[in-house]
Structure formats: C-alpha cells, structure tokens
Amino acid sequence: MTMSESSKETFGEVRARLDEIVSEVRSKDVSLEKSLDLYEEAIRLGNRCAELIDKPDYTAAEIAEANEVVEAGQEEGPEITI
After folding, report:
1. What radius of gyration do the chain's Cα atoms show?
2. How far is CA 7 from CA 13, 29, 33, in A?
C-alpha cells in the first residue's frame, strides 16, 4: 500500500482490515512468519486510525461513518463520541 492509497482510506476501511487481520491471526493455519507480518500491518493500521481520529477537519459524513463503525463493533458499553 502506497502513502497516497493510505491517505484516501476511511476509518471504516482501516477498521475492517484490522478485523480481517484478527480473524487471520486467530486461524490455526497461519504461520509464525505470517502472524508477524500481520502484526506489523496491524500496528501501521492502528497508527492510521489514530491519524484519522486526530484529523481536525472532519466532514459530517466522516464523523457519522466513524460513529457507525464504532457502534457496530460494540455489543455493549458506553457510547463513544468522536
């Protein structure tokens, strides 16, 4: 993934990829080497999520999308407002 592709990703897309990584790592068929590669990717994606959250000029659509993604990921718990 290039930097320009990375900058166009939405919070929801990054979060979805993180969910995919979790599923892959939990698979019994994944090698240690692949697990480490996925871990490194997850760290980069986590940092990207932090960048997106810290971005000061959100559009209303971006805020709504982030709230939907967070709410969909929570079964119970406090409401998180971004």
Report:
1. 14
2. 11, 32, 27
Q: Which two tokens stand for residue 15?
A: 């979060």
pLDDT on residue 56: 67
Secondary-structure breakdown of the chain: helix, strand, coil percentages, each rounded to the nearest 5: 70, 0, 30
Give Cα separations from 9 to 15, 30, 31, 66 (angstroms): 10, 26, 28, 12
Residues 9-68 have pLDDT tens digits of 888 899 999 999 999 999 888 999 999 999 999 999 999 988 888 876 667 787 788 888
| Six-digit token string for 29 | 């068929």
How far apart, in whole angstroms, are the C-alpha atoms of residue 82 and residue 15? 15
The answer to whether 68 touches 12, Cβ cutoff 8 Å, is yes
